[in-house]
Amino acid sequence: MSKNKTTLVLGGGGFIGNHLIKRLKQEGFWIRGVDLKYPQYSKTAAHEFIIADLRDPNKVKQIIDHPFTEVYQLAADMGGAGYIFTGNNDANVMSNSALVNINVLHYSQKAKIKKIFYSSSACIYPAYNQKDPNNPKCTEASAYPAAPDSEYGWEKLFSERLYLAYCRNYKLQVRIARFHNIFGPEGTWTGGKEKAPAAICRKVAETPDGRVIKMWGDGQQTRSFLYIDTCLEGIRRLMDSDFTGPVNIGSEEMVTINQLAKMIMKIAKKDIEIKHVQGPQGVRGRNSDNHLIRKKLNWEPTTKLVDGLKITYRWIAKQVEDAKKTQ
Fold first, then answer.
1. Strand pairing of 182-183 and 212-216?
2. Domain check: are 128 and 212 in the same one?
3. Residue 229 vs residues 48, 208, 245, 290, 304: alpha-carbon distances, Å
4. Fewer CB in 10 Å around end: N or C, the chain?
5. Is residue 230 included in any domain, yes or no?
6. Number of CB atoms found within 10 A of residue 259's CB
7. pLDDT tens digits along 293-306
8. DSSP state of 244
9. Tens of pLDDT along 12-57?
């Protein structure tokens, strides 16, 4: 394998980063992965993996030590609704992620990096366009006037602008994607940072047939969810294109959270009652708008929600069963 085709994956110990490393290795890249931790559920496929805190500029300077062909910046302080929307983690979420992006861009420019991908989020979209669960507006152009519903979204929007500024001022080739709820096996499924698909899969796997699970809100809030393999295809198409973005990478298959739970119960072959309780929910409706990515990259999601959930549920159910054996 030639080091002429090198890539750096920051956040390589996380869910998307770990899957991306596997994909890039299949494509023939030499890969350096970096994170605060190794991947939790499988061994990294990176040729070199460095444990480092990207908030430390000296560490980032050592890591970005030559002009990698491509850099993927996925590292962020993030989590599901229970982490993002309580307000208890806002200072850390904003400062940790902003420091990482400032350091990464500074030393990428110094090292003459050819191309860098930044993973933004659908959380940047204005809350005022997402009040109707049946008709959310999430076109890329609708991001302004800005009014994200969380500090996580505000930081992501700031960092988008930072990457675009480096593109203008330093001619750094930037690619920006706004992810919409990526899910799949080997993602966080317990501990408070898990997102809705994993959280519900876990609850259904843990709960006997005929019992009850709790759900935050009335379950009528809507979202779309994108399976990890399809997400990776979108990332690679964007990186190989001459389009800067920002662009949505998500699914237009919108469901209520109640419908999501029912789909998972059907996969598990369980009849479980849902008890709706108070808790953080985020916006009332969110769905990816894929008009721009279809036009620019000819990209469409290829995995239906139910098919991705089948794979994810089987994996999480096994984690639940394995955890019981160790208790």
1. unpaired
2. no
3. 23, 31, 21, 17, 11
4. C
5. yes
6. 15
7. 999 999 999 999 99
8. -
9. 999 999 999 999 999 999 999 999 999 999 999 999 999 999 999 9
Q: Is residue 297 situated within a structural domain?
A: no
* Model confidence pLDDT, tens digit, residues 122-132: 999 999 999 99
Q: Identify whether the C-beta of residue 154 lies closer than 8 Å to the C-beta of residue 98.
A: no
Give CA torsion, residues 78, 81, 84, 85, to 10 deg.
170
Of these residues, 83, 125, 152, 313, which one is catalytic?
152
Helix spans in the chain (H): 15-26, 57-63, 81-84, 90-110, 151-170, 196-206, 228-240, 257-268, 291-297, 305-326
Please indicate, yes or no, whether residues 92 and 234 belong to a single structural domain of this protein: yes
pTM over 0.90: yes
The answer to whether 152 is a known catalytic residue is yes
Pairing, β 273-277 against β 212-216: parallel
- Dihedral sign for Cα atoms in the order 18, 23, 25, 31: negative
**CA 45, CA 98: separation in Å to the nearest integer?**
28
Q: If we measure between CA atoms, which residue out of 122, 125, 119, 116 comes closest to residue 146?
A: 125
Instruction: Tell me how far apart the alpha carbons of residues 95 and 147 are, in angstroms, rounded to a whole number.
Output: 19
